[in-house]
């Protein structure tokens, strides 16, 4: 027998129920402004605490079809596809109204421009405007994000370099008026041709300023005056920067902006804003792989993405993108003198010849940045994608000349093929970045040598490791490389760059120089990488042990010097973490020797050095996860020593720092139970103290 219907309920007309209940096929009472079913669902959601970085919707997600000529905008938490379709239809309708020359009374006039939006209209940090797709911008469109992400705070730079158009408080307008204000602002950006996936133009300019102020890597290859001038052009102008490059800059600059990042459950830093824009860069690169890789801007974006992935500790992804940009640079002919070459057999370059000295210098810097990145991701001993024999490009000019507005000087007469190019420095073409480039080339030479010897060793079966090691260390190639790494390069650093902190040495750079700091550390890291496999800790006079001991002490001492200043360690170049790691690995090796020989005092001093470098990695990891990941690798190496040592809680965090110059010499017990510290022939090259500093150049 059918159940009798209640006389108190009236059946709803077609499409009278709310959209959410119709989509889910739920019973709806069509109550306004929110039906009972949606209210019940919403109360169930807010009864549970929101996870970190998530904010519950301030009201139920419930809307109805337009009625009586009024158009209701879907809420921010509705289906993104429906919202995009609705806004696209609204844009088309507004265009038709403008063409007819009269407004639609169904749309009220926007409120005055001084009105600000309340929290109910707060948008995600991923974007400050709508994500409408425009025909003039390639690439996929972005879904609209709800207000579930926390508001970001201001950028940590002087107020003179940025503008602010963020909503501050609730004043005056009703929610519907605020929504229409938001729509008008979005439509203004759509009409201007501004890429829909980028933040507001003022926000992009702010991030670009932060990028040039704080970035330690990719900013060296981008000409700031040209980029700022191109950014001021209309978005549909042919000289406007490639959207992928702007996404990459947003990704990189986000690291130095407070409020974008959050801490994950593992304690590592997470940056949804950077991840969003990094995905956009990847999509543009994937599109270029099918349609053709013909843009230097896109190549620059790929380089910036690689640095970001490397600093985030995503080494596999960074390795693949470095390989991509390395192969792409070859058909661009960036590895030839003048960054251009054409012949009948191989054809011409994918790029036309440089049209100016500035364009030529841009190409040089892109090439050498790819070269540095290739050496950086191969620092663990993997083969390089770009061999030195293929590098014929001239060395870049000084960064000061590159960024200046006046005409550029003549091309640098020096290249990697020049005699003694790594230890000969032309003053008019030498700065800290040039020294950093040469230091990376030096480190790459050591990695190439190690790779070749490992391949050779793997093919030999009848020779003992000891005999093979002696043959290698006595070879002319090894001795020449040892002399270059441990002596010649350091001895021939120009006098104006001898202070590794770089403070006060050059009039144009009165503050700390991150490039120069790393240029001083890389030769010591290369020394450890070259000699580590040949150490004999039982012999106090062993050359390889002495070399590694001096190099590790210099790296540790440089960290102590840096801590004596007010400069933030997190602003250093990411390759500095590799230097700390190599020094720490050496200290772990001699610590194992001291544990086995029962040298308690030397072991205690060595634990101090290990913890000091661990602290450096963890402090750097607070901003860039690569520091925490390297420290985790170090802990894996320490596992067996922690089982053998009798020292109580050796991995303590209350690390005593020694005054610069005082030194700690765990090598005192190497090879014997007494005696003084093992001295290196280059101990007189100790760096000097510099006054505190805190600004980045």
From TrEMBL:
**Signal sequence coordinates:** none
Concerning Gene3D superfamilies, the annotation shows: Zn(2)-C6 fungal-type DNA-binding domain
**From start to end residue, where is composition biased (Polar residues)?**
119-129
Gene Ontology terms: cellular component: nucleus
Name this polypeptide is given? Zn(2)-C6 fungal-type domain-containing protein
Region: Disordered; residue ranges are 58-79, 100-148, 665-697
Matching entries from InterPro entries are given as: TF_fung, XnlR_reg_dom, Zn2-C6_fun-type_DNA-bd_sf, Zn2Cys6_DnaBD
Which superkingdom? Answer: Eukaryota
Q: Which UniProt keywords apply?
A: Metal-binding, Nucleus, Transcription, Transcription regulation
Write out the biased-composition intervals (Pro residues).
105-114
**Biological process according to GO:** DNA-templated transcription
UniProt-annotated location(s): Nucleus
Q: SMART domains, alphabetically?
A: Fungal_trans
Q: Which residues form the Zn(2)-C6 fungal-type domain?
A: 17-64
According to the UniProt entry, its GO molecular function terms are: DNA binding; DNA-binding transcription factor activity, RNA polymerase II-specific; zinc ion binding
